[in-house]
Amino acid sequence: MNRRYRKLRIEKRNRLLELAYIDPITGLGNYNAYLERTKEKLEMNGKKTVIILDIDKFKTFNKKYGHMKGNELLKRVGEEIKHAIRKTDIVCRLANDVFGIFLVGEVDVENITGRLNNKISRINMGDIWYNLRISMGVYICDKDEKDVQSIIDKAIMAHDSIKGKYHVPYGIFTEEFEQKVIRESEIENMMEEAIKNKEFEVYYQPQISTKTEKMEGAEALVRWKKGENMISPGEFIPIFEKNYFIIKLDEYVYERVCENIQEIKKEFKDIPKISVNISKESLLDNKFLEKYEKIMKKYDIIPKEIELEITERTTVNNDIDIRNMLNEIKEKGFSIAIDDFGTGYSSLNMLEMMPIDTLKIDKSFIDRINIKEEKTNFIEIIMFITKKLNLKTVAEGVETIEQVNYLKKWNCDLIQGYVYQKPLRFEEFKKYIKEM
Ligand code: C2E
Ligand code: CA
Ligand code: CA
Questions:
Q1: pLDDT per position as a tens digit, 70-116
Q2: What residues are in contact with ligand 1 under a 6 Å CB criterion?
Q3: Same-domain pairing of 210 and 167
Q4: pTM for the predicted model, two decimal places
């Protein structure tokens, strides 16, 4: 082979390698390069730390200053990271605005993340300083960690763990969080089947009037029975709210409730008003009213037999879409309860503007009734306001007779809690109505 030809071939190979491993925008290694280089380092002894660094709102920056400036910014960020780490460490650009860092040897996480944050949160290009926000995920590698993809995943998981926490610049991977993520995806994998297999069951918890001592209402609470096990709503509801499956579940629960009310009506003359929990996601679904009315008609239910519970958090921003929706619901004749009242910092203004009928005082306030030293008793204040606004009050999570007496004294209307009854299966609930 002649020399000239060989040289050309080597050049060509190098260029291809470059294309495969170099990020043209920053001149740093790309994702493939990161995989290769960290793989080598993982074979070595000593401590290793992975940091995933993400520029927040990079898209907005691009929109505001243009793609050229955006590219320049990425380059500058790459340079700053390089300055902040050692020669033997690695930095590559893994995707759009995400950098992968790999540190070899002892590392003070607080220190390095602090330095990165300082350098990058105010960055200069030309003569202009730009303010940025970055967030990082940190994984301190196990001694015998060899799988590159897995260490990246763990650092990404650490990054995910601070999602929504704007004042926290970095998260560190923990087994606990990993377990949570695994559990979450387990639940997500089971949910569709669970509806089909009728694993969700509706329980009813009676609400007792402080005046008549009779049951005047009941709250429908969903239960998930998976074989022998129960999965708690406290666990699956937040997951379903995140992935919007709650829209389906709320509707399913509502339909069971309508079906059950229809059955109760055949047997009893006086029936308690049943309240059903409705998540914000369901409420904002544009088919909400149409679907719920259709179901109601299917079972011959009239709106005044049902109360819809909306958490205080749903209403707290005084969101116009929410308010419009509540007004429409109200016009149809349903009554509306604000759930978990006291946990979401509502304003009095909001209480007056929202078309609500009932206020459910959160259990945390009921728990405090026992505390003798409590100076300001919020329940007294809440009762004062609700009477002024003509709202019905329900105390939630009432467990002792002392609490009942206190609530009677302050004219709370209904009491819901273990002191009277735990949530009951429908069959038991019917017996309970009979005895009442
Ligand atoms: P929530 O709406 O605040 O429901 C009250 C919770 O307090 C229920 O928990 C109930 O079992 C519990 N509880 C009642 N009395 C007592 C008591 O005296 N002591 C104690 N320690 N607890 C009491 P549960 O059934 O585990 O439900 C948890 C949450 O899940 C509910 O809180 C509600 O936000 C949500 N949820 C339940 N069913 C549904 C549903 O069908 N749709 C939606 N969107 N959310 C639901
Ligand atoms: Ca509720
Ligand atoms: Ca509640």
A1: 999 999 999 999 999 999 999 999 999 999 999 999 999 999 999 99
A2: 205, 221-222, 232-234, 237, 246, 250, 253, 277, 279, 339-340, 396-399, 416-418, 423
A3: no
A4: 0.84
